[in-house]
Amino acid sequence: METLTAPRAEPDRAELRGTARGGLVNLVGAAVAGGGGLAVTWLVAMALSPSDAGAFFSVTSVFLLAAALARLGTPTGLVYWVARLRQAGREAAIGSVLRIALRPAVAVAVAAAIGLFAAAPMFARPELVRLVAVFLPASVAMEALLAATRGYRLMGPTVLIDKFGRTLTQLAALGAVVLTGASSALAVTAAWALPYLPAAAAAGWYLWRRRRGASDPGFPDRVQARAFWGFTAPRAVAGVAQIGLQRLDIILVAALAGLGAAAVYTVATRFVIVGQLASGAVGHAVQPRAAAAMAAGEALSAKRLYQESTAWIVALTWPVYLTVGLGADYYLRLFGGGYATETARAVVWVLVPAMMTGAACGVVDSMLSMAGKTSWQLADVAIALAVNVSLNLLLIPSLGVVGAAIAWSAAVVVNNLIPLAQLWRTFGLHPFGALTRRSLLATGLGFGAVPAAMGLLGAGWTLTALVAAGLAWAGVLLRYRRRI
């Protein structure tokens, strides 16, 4: 078995502290973005009819899929190359990486926007598709530019510009639409898409300011396009497939079961966004440090980064997943009584175990890509997407949104366990350190087994136990905040 060498007996604790600080900044942003995502779903569900809400959710899913395609994998490529070049003391070569990545991504984004605009008549609501197509290049530019700043280990720009700025602007615009009584699918979609423009401008300004005055001599140090795209191209396809895993089911539900069913499915699955954002927040902090550690052959540092970051993810996401699963009725009623159905509850119960499995695997996707195995990552996500699409087409006609939930759950499990096996066997890296095991045990008992047992005395006891567990868990996290 091939493993990384470990020249140091102990990992650099400064790396873990740096990751923790970056993770904390990202987690604050994830809390805002996650809450904002739920608030957007709530506003749309309350302001629009199920048919119009389903149209909004399906069109925004098309937008996110198109954006993932147009990015060409550049966010991961930029983090990887900028972090490694800085680790190697090759600051002068970073300019070449930025040019290699940004120019094609912007060109493809413009072409994709034109193509989406032209293809709008193929969709049920073409006016909504044309609207979001206009903002596609801004979304791609924002993601790529912010990824470059993360390569410098700067988490603040992503949090301030994307998580805070874009999310809060979307909420403010949607709130204004609802309060003025101008709620329509077109107005709501415009309010959601417009904030990508100022966010892209702010990201460009920040990176220009960070790079201003950087040494970029004309002769020697350049990264070749072949090297950059050799790493990034598989990630480009994998990135599309990853977004497909998260959003394609909404589009398929809308096509096979109707826009109203798509609205129900989106509402029932929105709790997942909280866990995804928490994992993404930690992953953004881990990526540049994992890339540097693996480039230097520091196996112990990479292992500690993986295991401790997984413990943080479990500590933050398992309480959410278990609380939503045990309190599914309360969660669904937040979006209106029409969404609190047996079918919606079944969707929640199917998804919760799969999402818990994904959280327990930690940032396995980021670790595999930062190890340079983007071709493996592409194969893994392609398998998961094939499972997702096949099961969706097979199950949605007979089971409706529950079939879509089964398909997504199966794909999530596949997309985490296969790369985990690869990472463990090839590099000896796994997420199950002592802190992870304690987090799994504490959250599983406190938010799962105990509240479920209390529920035998009555539904009110489950809620009481969950509230008590939340207060106790907050106290534990506060008490051991320095260790965490």
Helicity, as a percent range: over 70%
Q: What structural category characterises the helix and strand content?
A: mainly alpha
> What integer is the average pLDDT?
84
Q: Tally the helices: what do you get?
A: 20
Describe this structure in words.
With 484 residues, this protein is mainly alpha-helical. The protein has one domain (13-212, 220-432). It has 20 helices and no strands. α4 (94-118) runs antiparallel to α5, α6 (136-151) packs parallel to α9 and α10 (225-257) runs antiparallel to α18 (401-427).
Helices and strands in order:
Elements: H1 13-47, H2 50-71, H3 74-87, H4 94-118, H5 126-134, H6 136-151, H7 156-179, H8 185-193, H9 196-211, H10 225-257, H11 259-269, H12 272-295, H13 299-326, H14 328-333, H15 342-360, H16 364-370, H17 374-399, H18 401-427, H19 434-454, H20 459-479
Helix pairs in contact: 1-7, 1-12, 1-13, 2-4, 2-5, 2-6, 2-8, 2-10, 2-11, 3-4, 3-6, 3-10, 3-12, 4-5, 4-6, 5-8, 6-9, 7-8, 7-9, 10-11, 10-17, 10-18, 11-15, 11-18, 12-13, 13-15, 13-19, 15-18, 16-18, 17-18, 19-20
Summarize the structure.
This protein has 484 residues and is mostly helical.
Which keywords apply here?
globular, 484 residues, single chain, 20 helices, 0% strand, mainly alpha
